[in-house]
Amino acid sequence: MHNTSSGGTLSPARAATARVVHGRGGLALLRVVAALACLETLVQGLLAGMLLNGDVDSIDPHGVNAYVFELLVFLQVAAAVLVWRRNRWLTWPPKATLGILVATFTQTALGLEGSLAAHVTLGVALCAMETALVLRAFTLPAQNGAAPA
Q1: Which DSSP symbol is given to 20?
Q2: 44 and 62 in contact (C-beta within 8 Å)?
Q3: How far apart, in whole angstroms, are the C-alpha atoms of residue 137 and residue 28?
Q4: Which residues are CB-contacts of 61 (< 8 A; sequence separation ≥ 6)?
Q5: Residue pLDDT, tens place only, 121-144
Q6: Phi, psi for residue 41 in degrees, rounded to 5
Q7: Contact 44, 104 (CB under 8 A)
Q8: What's the pTM value of the predicted model, to 2 decimals?
Q9: Which of 6, 19, 21, 94 gives a 20 to 30 Å CA spacing to 110?
Q10: Which candidate, 68, 74, 86, 70, places its Cα nearest to that of 27?
Q11: DSSP H helical segments within the chain, as ranges?
């Protein structure tokens, strides 16, 4: 039973958590792609650490992995839009993934420009953003059974 002490209605925060996500395929895609992108940020951090430790051979894998990460972020945005199209009340996934996309392009530009301090700082922030996205995506309640048409 829900707490309806405020005049019989749920608070907006409670109402949002009481809803379930329709379209399990889109949600599953978002979860998988976000988890892979999150892992990519860890690989990027490892390669960056190797580079900063003097392993100059890690620069090429770091660059290639950056483009893999960008591709995953594009897929994240697409998956978030799929989830949102079936669940118009759920606006945070497209907003969050678009924010991560902008941060990713900024990160690439900073890396190509050689702005090391900003590049490393934004890299850590991207890792945190991806982690938060994964945690939120995996806590969304999915609908069991067939979704309504």
Answers
A1: -
A2: yes
A3: 9
A4: 47
A5: 999 999 999 999 999 999 988 876
A6: -65, -35
A7: no
A8: 0.81
A9: 94
A10: 86
A11: 12-18, 24-52, 59-86, 92-113, 116-138
